[in-house]
Amino acid sequence: MIDELRKSLIEAIEDDWVYFAELKVMIRDITGSADDLLRKAGEAAAQLVRDRAVVPGNLTKAEGFTPWLTSPDESAARI
Question: What pTM does this model have?
Answer without folding.
Answer: 0.85
